[in-house]
Amino acid sequence: MNINEITFDSLPQAIGLLINEVSELKCLLVAKQKPTETQRRTPIGVKDVCALTGKAKPTIYALVQQRIIPCYKTAKKLYFYEDEVLAWINNGKRKTGLELKAEAENYSQNKRR
User: Fold this and answer.
1) Is the CB of residue 84 less than 8 Å from the CB of residue 48?
2) Per the count of CB atoms within 10 A, which of 44, 56, 67, 79 is most buried?
3) What is the DSSP code (8-state) at residue 71?
């Protein structure tokens, strides 16, 4: 459709064409757009980790000593990042009975082949 040929009768088609072109431009801009904001991670202390995990301070210190929980130490101060602690919690997820059953069935089926 030529822009110079827009009539009252072809107005809905022209608007539909413009809407499609605008949506394509938006998609291209979103795809090429780089994140301008850099996320700053703020370190949290032992008290915050206790509140986040529901564990007592001595337990957190024991986990740090055993190098189980991700942490950072500067001088005598311990620092944690909330996203790392949450990822640590998620990595410790125990499988449900259904997940274990499905895993066993997959293993037995692959073993037969």
Assistant:
1) no
2) 44
3) -
Instruction: Give tens-digit pLDDT for 55-108.
Output: 999 999 999 999 999 999 999 899 999 999 999 998 888 888 888 899 899 888
3-state SS assignment for residue 104? helix
CA dihedral 70, 74, 79, 84 (to 10 degrees): -30
Residue 99, CB-side half-sphere exposure with 13 Å CA sphere: 4
Give residue limits of the domains in the chain. Answer: 3-32, 43-91
Task: Note whether 41 and 48 are within 8 A (CB).
Answer: no
CB 58 within 8 A of CB 91: no
